[in-house]
Amino acid sequence: MVFVKDPGAPVLTSGDAHHLLDVLRLRTGEVVVASDGAGSWAPCRLAAPPPGRGSRGIDVASLLEPDGRPVTQPRLWPEITVAFAPTKGDRPEWVTQKLTELGVDRVVPIRSARSVVRWDGERGGRAVERLRRVAREAAAQCRRPWLPEIAAVTPLDGIAALVGARPLLARPGGGRPSLDHPVLAVGPEGGWDDDELARFGAGVGLGPTVLRAETAAVAAGTVLCALRSGVVGPLA
After folding, report:
1. pLDDT number for residue 14
2. Is 93 helix (H, G, I), strand (E, B) or coil?
């Protein structure tokens, strides 16, 4: 899958053309799905590139030819949000990739009292843009026509204003995950502090063991998306 402005008249970027021709090495006539990232998609076929191998010098505007009318896939309900405190290294990218594959609608990097990694100012902006690129690539790989929203770095207290609902905190000993509360927040390596726990209630449990921060974020997305899709059902 590739993302374009209009699936009915797809125009590729040079980066997407490079990926299709130089990385995937697709051939003339092969099917490529084009999506606008907002639920609309259409099957297309790869047009014949000019003589020579590779994407260099190709008119990317005419590389895909529509092979059917665009179809709109409705957004699943309820929308699922997973907020997480970024950790060191490339683990935030891994979390974002997996949450995108699972079908999470909104990913929110957060600041909390015990956060070790601080994404502030320009550093935070660059980090979020990197997560958005990761999400786009993951959505294309898993053929997801709805791109997830990757929010700017948000304080824990600001999540409600962003998504219209108060988050529940993932914590050991919390209650059962439920689609009645589809907004879950996962804390940093040091966990939530006492003030955060007092302000946000009993929270939601993700199992009997203490999970790493990145594992907990993916577990939260897995459980909520599985409940929404009916892969698992709520306990009686």
Report:
1. 85
2. helix
Q: Is the pTM of this model over 0.85?
A: yes
**Are 132 and 150 a contacting pair, CB within 8 Å?**
yes
Task: Tell me which residues of the chain have a pLDDT lower than 50.
Answer: 53
Q: Please, which residues bridge with residue 183 across strands?
A: 81
Tokens 């009292």 belong to 113
Residues linked to residue 66 through DSSP beta bridges, in sequence order: 44
Q: Are residues 181 and 94 in the same domain?
A: yes
Dump pLDDT digits (tens) for 3-32. 999 999 999 988 888 888 888 888 889 999
Whether 10 and 110 map to the same domain: the answer is no
Q: Between 121-141 and 91-102, two packed helices, what is the crossing angle to 10 degrees?
A: 40
What is d(CA 50, CA 29) in angstroms, rounded to the nearest whole number? 14
12: domain CATH number? 2.40.240.20
* Residue corresponding to tokens 């690539």: 137
- List Cβ<8 Å contacts ≥24 apart for 200-204: 200/156, 200/166, 200/167, 200/168, 200/169, 201/168, 201/169, 202/174, 202/175, 203/168, 203/169, 203/170, 203/171, 203/174, 203/175, 204/168, 204/169, 204/170, 204/171, 204/174, 204/175, 204/176, 204/177
Model pLDDT, residue 55: 54
Does 55 fall in a domain?
Answer: yes
Alpha carbons 51 and 120: distance in angstroms, whole number: 48
The whole domain housing 164 covers 81-229
* Same-domain pairing of 38 and 125: no
**pLDDT for the residue numbered 229:** 94
